[in-house]
Specification:
The complex is a heterodimer.
Chain A lengths: L3 E3 L4 H18 L6 E14 L2 E12 L5 E11 L8 E7 L7 H12 L6 E5 L11 H18 L6 E15 L2 E12 L4 E12 L3 E9 L15
Antiparallel strand pairs in A: 1-2, 2-3, 3-4, 4-5, 6-7, 7-8, 8-9, 9-10
Chain B lengths: L1 H15 L8 E6 L3 H11 L7 E4 L7 E6 L4 H10 L3 E6 L2 H18 L16 H14 L4 E8 L5 E7 L8 E6 L6 H17 L4 H9 L1 E5 L4 H9 L52 H13 L2 E9 L3 E4 L11 H19 L4 E4 H4 L7 H7 L4 E7 L14 H21 L3
Parallel strand pairs in B: 7-8, 7-9, 9-12, 10-11
Antiparallel strand pairs in B: 1-3, 1-4, 2-3, 5-6, 6-8, 10-12
Classes of the chains: A alpha+beta, B alpha/beta.
Protein name (chain A): Latexin
Keywords (chain A): Protease inhibitor, Repeat
GO molecular function, one term (chain A): metalloendopeptidase inhibitor activity
């Protein structure tokens, strides 16, 4: 494991920075706010008792408004055998400048009444295309995926959402829009496509919450893939 | 009949010289009684409003469809509301609808088979049949520059086609480019197609490319994993590997970029057939890989080897299987820096660069580790756009920008190779 000053071009800093991206989306993401890592400026890693601690200076970009901001982040990857999620702290300047409140509110009002449940599939499709009306659901899928990707991340993984396989709107409950999502995640080191089913809620006040997650088997008659030798 | 009405309207308006329907709306008005019908008739006869009745009421339908120019909208709607005449907006912006329809017709036209490589739609993704037909067209149109070599067959028997770009001579030093070794990386096959056309377009017109081809041959394999590519169209867009079954397993395919004899068997690949990075039963077990191995060995004079993947926006050099720096690290690093600077100059796309093992991960049995160990010094792997937002399913409108910026990097590598080859 690399310790000390990290080369911003190399993978250890990059993987940690991606975890920060997932954290920011979990915290701040919405159908109109989706954040991606733009650049790693500097970083360092150190061994602590049972943990690995990273410090990073990053630029993140919000994809809908194209606003960028500088972020300072600290991550703790737990050591040992347990599969617990990394802990992240981040503070960003200027990143959340965009104000999607009006769009979020309009979207929320449009979909909270129960008389027209929305659904969609293959977002984007094989050609990278999606209907404009599906875009906020794509963003929402990406943000919900960030919750899982954050939870599943460690120093040997790099996750992105590859596609929203499908989503279905459920009855609004307790003022939260509710959806079943089936997402495909791409894990870069193993190159695997991992299927997850998620129960997702969202409202402008409460943000995105993932209530249930269910890992889908890779294929019916296959053995589960073992861990890639590192 | 809707379309007929549309055409009539367009003709009618063309006669009157109106150029755009921006902001015009089509209202469907439901009249309740004779009084309302008369009111509506009077309204439609007011010339200054320029109302255009598309569909009159009939005995069967109480609705009237009227196109209302943008400038008359407020007046008309106020009138309808005052008179309590029911209506709804059928078309919110006629110009937008016409533009969308035109676009649909154009793309339908594009979908019919191109007759020349000039007609081919480089800004779209294509089936393997389309690409193979393109290859034959390019050869037919440029018989003195391009030929097709079949270096082998895929597992399912598809030809492995390599385009040779050559100005003649025997055993000239060569440059190899391949795209699509991982079938789901669609922007690479699409870019490879564009590169092929670019080469024939620029020979004799661009001094740098002409100088390269006068001294060296270029070999381009566009669909390096045809079975996988076919599968991504018909069954699973996310398929990466070959399609060869594995005895004793229900899982199919070997990762063609872990199947080369460089660090084979070491960490950085999987020994499970169900894994996306399965190395295969032995090195060069896949015909898609073995065919290239045989070609490289029999050519004997390749000076550069570039294998193109997506995504992540990186330019990588050996090694992936070991942390030991390759002996030409310094030169390859500097050339990579130059290449990605040129790449970024076009649209500002930023790339990282470095050795595989430092920049992305440890990977054994990789293509360019093998080619480098064969003595092909300028061995590089690209990871094209993007960095994860779309990933493998990059929108088609990014194909041309990706191909164009990547070409600048390839030219830097090819020029340097030419200048350092005897």
């Amino acid at each position: 494991m690399t310790t000390g000053v990290l080369n911003p071009s190399h993978y250890p800093a990059r993987r940690a920075a991606t975890v920060v991206q997932h954290y920011l989306n979990t915290r701040y993401g919405s159908p109109y706010r989706w954040i991606f890592l733009s650049k790693v400026h500097s970083g360092s890693a150190e061994d602590m008792a049972e943990m690995r601690k990273y410090q990073l200076e990053l630029t993140m970009q919000e994809m809908i408004s194209n606003v960028s901001g500088q972020c300072s982040a600290e991550l703790l990857f737990p050591g040992g055998e347990g599969q617990s999620a990394p802990q992240v702290q981040a503070s960003c300047e200027g990143l959340l400048q965009s104000n999607p409140t009006a769009q979020e509110e309009a979207f929320y009002q449009q979909h909270r009444a129960s008389n027209n449940m929305v659904s969609g599939s293959n977002i984007p499709d094989s050609y990278g295309h999606m209907e404009p009306s599906m875009k906020p659901f794509w963003h929402l899928g990406g943000v919900a995926s960030s919750c899982i990707m954050l939870r599943e991340s460690n120093e040997s993984t790099l996750y992105n959402m590859a596609q929203v396989a499908n989503f279905t709107q459920l009855e609004t409950e307790k003022d939260q829009l509710r959806f079943n999502y089936h997402v495909l995640l791409h894990e870069m080191i193993s190159q695997e496509i991992i299927h997850w089913k998620l129960l997702v809620t969202w409202s402008p006040e409460q943000g995105v919450k993932v209530l249930q997650t269910e890992l889908q088997p890779k294929c019916h008659d296959c053995e589960a893939p073992p861990n890639t030798t590192n | 009949t809707m379309k007929g009405l549309l055409v009539l309207t367009v003709l009618f308006v063309a006669v009157f010289g109106k150029e755009t329907f921006e902001g015009d709306q089509v209202l469907r008005i439901t009249v309740r009684d004779e009084v309302q019908l008369t009111l509506l008739k009077d309204l439609s006869e007011m010339e200054y409003l320029q109302l255009d009745v598309w569909m009159e009421t009939t005995d069967l339908s109480p609705s009237v469809d009227i196109r209302v120019p943008f400038t008359s909208l407020q007046t008309v709607k106020a009138f309808l509301e005052t008179e309590d005449i029911e209506y709804f907006i059928m078309i919110k912006d006629l110009q937008v609808m016409l533009d969308e329809e035109k676009e649909q017709m154009l793309s339908a036209a594009r979908a019919t088979a191109p007759r020349t490589s000039d007609d081919y739609d480089y800004s779209n993704y294509h089936t393997i049949a389309d690409i193979y037909a393109f290859q034959d067209m390019l050869v037919a149109e440029n018989p003195n520059l391009v030929s097709k070599i079949v270096i082998g067959q895929s597992y399912q028997g598809r030809p492995l086609n390599v385009l040779k770009f050559s100005t003649g001579g025997t055993n000239k030093p060569g440059i190899w480019l391949d795209t699509g070794i991982h079938s789901r990386e669609w922007v690479t096959q699409a870019s490879g197609t564009w590169f092929a056309k670019k080469i024939v377009t620029d020979y004799g017109r661009d001094a740098a490319l002409t100088a390269i081809l006068d001294k060296m041959d270029i070999f381009l394999e566009i669909v390096t994993n045809p079975d996988g590519y076919f599968y991504t169209h018909t069954s699973n867009r996310m398929w990466r590997k070959t399609r060869k079954p594995n005895p004793g397993s229900s899982c199919i395919g070997t990762d063609p970029n872990r199947n080369w004899d460089a660090g084979f068997g070491g960490p950085g690949a999987s020994d499970s057939p169900c894994s996306e990075t399965y190395r295969g039963p032995k090195a060069h077990s896949e015909s898609e890989v073995k065919s290239i191995v045989d070609f490289v060995k029999s050519h004997g004079n390749l000076q550069a080897f570039v294998s193109i993947h997506s995504y992540s926006q990186m330019l990588l050099y050996p090694y992936g299987y070991t942390r030991t720096p390759c002996k030409d690290q310094s030169e390859l690093h500097n050339l990579a820096r130059k290449a990605i600077t040129y790449l970024g100059s076009l649209y500002g796309t930023s790339y990282r660069y470095g050795s595989i093992i430092n920049t992305i991960y440890q990977a054994s049995g990789g293509t360019i580790d093998w080619t480098y160990n064969q003595g092909i010094k300028y061995s590089y792997t690209f990871e094209l756009r993007d960095t994860g937002r779309y990933g493998f399913i990059l929108p088609a409108n990014q194909i041309l920008p990706t191909a164009k910026e990547t070409w600048l990097a390839l030219m830097a590598i090819m020029e340097h190779t030419k200048d350092n080859t005897n």
